[in-house]
Design a protein that fits this description.
Blueprint (H helix, E strand, L loop, with lengths): L6 H27 L13 H52 L6 H18 L3 E2 L2 E2 L14 H12 L21 H13 L15 E4 L2 E3 L8 H14 L16 H58 L3 H27 L2 H5 L1
Antiparallel strand pairs: 1-2, 3-4
Helix pairs in contact: 1-8, 2-3, 2-7, 3-6, 5-6, 5-7, 6-7
């Protein structure tokens, strides 16, 4: 018996079966892993695009991490600046209520001393081991303790001139013609040297939060607003209790005391304006960070969707494709069986 068949038909069917089996194996691996391929090479022409998209995802994730950290810091900075501002307002209110009243002299000095301790403590704000107002020296307390500064400022006003110290304003010979101006000049001179009250570093560089976008969030404890505020507060906190006019140095007369308080109060009012500027500046930074992060989240969602479309398997589509291939494979097997059974006898029937 001779079999009727063609080699070409047999080879074609076998190749078709092999191809279908390869496709089924690939689909089974994809369904199992959820990925179209385990390496970039398997993506063909889309490999370069996929690599670029993944790099963009990594970059956006890094930006997001940095922004989240900056948002935490600027949030604490906002609370601190507002708290210092409010404490300063309280001191100014106390000055206004007690100025030119003999019974209020001690109240003013005590209020200034309490405000110094409170404000100094606030400016030592720390987040995750990072001192926020210390500039580049993030691991170091930025503000010099009041217990160190107050005796030095008091000595500028009242000093017995024992070596090696210089005589204070009230011990100078001859006595200054304008004692309040001399006191203010002495204290201002002290705070003109930032290292006398600030032990932090310079402002740290602006942070990159997006491609071509930077934000400068560094506010240091030697900011002019802080220097002005401390000059005014330490002036008040260092004043000796006045005596009725006329007074002879080293005593401080009531009129000179009042004039000195008014001068210091002016500095404190200027410092309030400076803190309001810092609060607004920090608020602008917060808004920029929020807006940038929102834009990046939208971009990140889009990019991740593109990566998913390139790399990941559509399970519904894969399931349909498996069914189609199984049907084709079954048909190929049946065709193979028909070709195998085809004979001259069967052909002549």
């Amino acid at each position: 018996m001779s079999t009727v068949g063609t080699l070409a038909q047999s080879l074609l069917v076998r190749n078709n079966i092999s191809s279908i089996q390869d496709q089924l194996n690939t689909l089974q691996q994809q369904v199992s892993s959820g990925l179209k391929t385990e390496n970039y090479g398997g993506l063909g022409a889309q490999a370069t695009l996929d690599i670029n998209l993944r790099n963009q995802v990594d970059r956006l994730d890094a930006y997001n991490t940095d922004i989240t950290s900056l948002q935490t810091r600027t949030g604490i900075v906002d609370q601190t600046l507002n708290s210092v501002h409010d404490a300063t307002l309280d001191v100014r209110s106390t000055i206004i209520q007690n100025l030119n009243t003999a019974s209020g002299n001690g109240t003013i000095v005590q209020a200034a001393q309490q405000a110094i301790a409170d404000i100094t403590n606030k400016l030592q704000a720390n987040v995750d081991g990072r001192y926020l107002f210390a500039g580049t020296k993030t691991d170091q307390l930025p503000m010099v303790a009041s217990s160190t500064i107050l005796p030095q400022v008091q000595a500028l006003i009242v000093n017995p001139a024992s070596p090696p110290g210089a005589p204070g304003v009230l011990q100078q010979a001859p006595t200054p013609a304008n004692i309040p101006a001399a006191i203010q000049a002495a204290v201002s001179g002290f705070f003109a040297t930032s290292s006398n009250y600030y032990s932090g570093g310079p402002a740290y560089p602006a942070s990159h939060v997006d491609d071509g976008v930077t934000v400068n969030t560094s506010i240091t404890g030697d900011d002019p607003a802080v220097a002005q505020l401390l000059t005014g507060l330490y002036t008040l906190a260092s004043l000796p209790q006045p005596v009725p006019d006329p007074a002879t140095p080293p005593s401080l007369g009531q009129s000179d005391f009042n004039a000195t308080v008014q001068s210091a109060s002016g500095l404190i009012s200027s410092a309030l304006s400076g803190f309001e500027t810092l609060i607004a500046q920090n608020g602008t930074n917060q808004k920029l960070l929020d807006t940038t992060q929102q834009d990046q989240q939208a971009t990140l969602t889009l990019v991740k969707t593109q990566v998913d479309n390139i790399e990941n398997v559509d399970m519904a589509e894969a399931s349909t494709r498996v069914t189609q291939l199984q049907t084709q494979l079954q048909a190929s097997y049946e065709l193979t069986a028909l070709l195998k059974d085809l004979s001259l006898t069967n052909f002549l029937k």
